[in-house]
Amino acid sequence: MILVLVETENGAASEISLETLAFARALAAEGGGIAIRAVVVGAVENRDALAAELGTHGAAEVHHAVGEAFTSYAGAAWAAALQAIRESTGSVVVTAAGSPRGNEVLAHLAARLDVPMAANATAFQGLAPFVVTRQVVGGAAMEEMTLDQRPAILTVAGHSWAASPVSGASPAAWVEVTPEVAESDLLARVVSTGTKEVDHSGSLKSAKVVVGAGRGAGGADGFGAVAELAELLGGAVGVSRVVTSLGWRPHHEQVGQTGSRISPDLYIPCGISGAIQHWAGCASSKTILAINTDPEAPMMTKANYSVVGDMHEVLPAIIEELKSRGVRG
Amino acid sequence: MTNVLVCIKRVPDSSGEVLLTDDQQGVDGRYVGFTVSNHESCAVELAVQTVEATGGTVTLLTVGPSEATEQLRDTLALGCQAAVLVEAEPTRLGPADVAREIAHVVREKEAEGTTYDLILLGNDAADSGDFQVGIRLAHALGRPVVNGVSTVEVADGHLTARGDGPDGEETYSPPLPAIATVLEGGVEPRYPTLRGRMAAKKVQIETRPLSAEPVGASRVRLLLPPPAPSTVEVLGEGPEAAGAVADLFGKLGVTR
What we know:
The structure holds 2 protein chains of 2 kinds.
Chain A: E1 2-5, E2 8-9, E3 12-13, H1 15-30, E4 36-41, H2 47-56, E5 61-65, H3 75-89, E6 93-97, H4 100-113, E7 117-127, E8 130-136, E9 141-146, E10 152-156, E11 173-177, E12 190-193, H5 201-206, E13 209-213, H6 224-232, E14 236-239, H7 241-245, E15 266-270, H8 276-282, E16 287-292, H9 298-302, E17 305-308, H10 311-324
Parallel strand pairs in A: 1-4, 1-6, 4-5, 5-11, 6-10, 7-10, 13-14, 13-15, 15-16, 16-17
Antiparallel strand pairs in A: 2-3, 7-8, 8-9
Helix pairs in contact in A: 3-4, 6-10
Chain B: E1 2-7, E2 11-12, E3 19-20, E4 27-28, E5 34-35, H1 38-54, E6 56-64, H2 69-76, E7 82-87, H3 95-111, E8 118-122, H4 133-141, E9 145-149, E10 151-155, E11 158-165, E12 168-172, E13 178-182, H5 194-202, E14 206-208, E15 219-223, E16 233-237, H6 242-252
Parallel strand pairs in B: 1-6, 1-8, 6-7, 7-14, 8-13, 9-13
Antiparallel strand pairs in B: 2-5, 3-4, 10-11, 11-12
């Protein structure tokens, strides 16, 4: 049996959790039709809708952990729930999205069971031995790693699989469980949650268009046209590390290895050379249009389209052209 | 008084081209140089700020080759008082080994009378990207751990740690001793002063051997993703390219 920890977002499964279910289904098929169970922890807004959604993405059952221990997040408590469900189902593989929560909870589980964990897997090669390929060096390199103990514990890198619903699938059966959680597993739990800032990285990660800017912006006041184009295209602003290091823009706008990983339909990096760390954060973009004065910059050769020129001249011209064509954002 | 232990890792600088060693077991840093990750630089800054606020000491620890003394010296210069090197060939170690070695040092120091109230690590290593050493360490020591934090504060026997969560900024408040893994972004790491560099030179780095035979990383090999063939289509130069860009937007359907 394969266990998939599913995170929810506004009541529905997060996109990256659905991608993980797609990975699990490929693994299940390779194993000759291994059953998939989803695990959900804590409050669920609409059980029927979530059961239907997870059924559509390949889970036969949802094990829902409830109780006081799960009213606010604690990584160790979530791992305790996952451990109990793993034992009752006899699962041989436990997986989750390669998200902050997914990596954290599975690392707790791996530590508790004293087995290895592979973070950010993108593929597997056969089951015996079970070898997975995973992202290292922020996605700049890959590692093939053997997971020879059971359960095999791994997280699935975001955007490495596409969520793929099956038409006509039945809703997953709902199994409510109340796992015991030790006091010590609740010492590090969320005691308060602030309000989400407007324009937080959430919108950056889900934006269909991202207009990026790097050192070429020239200063904190060099982002006017960048923001205007983003608004005109209904997109978000993303920046390189140097921009946040210099304090020109807030950290939550950073795209890259230590910022947000984005996968928009169109990414428009302006004045960004394209260092490895930045590339790691934007490589999943479907189309890249780079604007830079240096035609030899890595971003300009890796992009699908390029414009050679100063972003401060090119962006206003693009904005003017769009407006003349009736684009109003 | 707070005794803080910060765990750092000597890693190849991956801001430029990433090269692999011939045996495909590690990232080759010979031509690009070595550094510590941005997450760890922020962890060191948080440790130094904590000790400035409460008194106490910052001790650095690394598990790695003898050359990692270079990263320990550089980091000592930022206002840390002591450093421990557990000497090991890094490609032989997996995340469980690193956690076990750190736990071993912490327990031995405790037996000698030094308790580290707060242990800080980076959220993930810049090279091996395991995302688990801090958590395995917490498990080995039986201490609470907060993951992916950007700020920490120590008061009244508790750690207050904050980080970004899916629904906004999250606050955790576990009792000390506690462990936190740090994500870059909450503080701006300081630069070393001349005085700091002089002080760092005088610190005796404690060198220790591994406490147990490593279990390893189960690594088959490292690979570089195949370079994407450059198929870039140049739309034009300067402002004159605006028309072609607008056409492209139309083709991609991003202008509604």
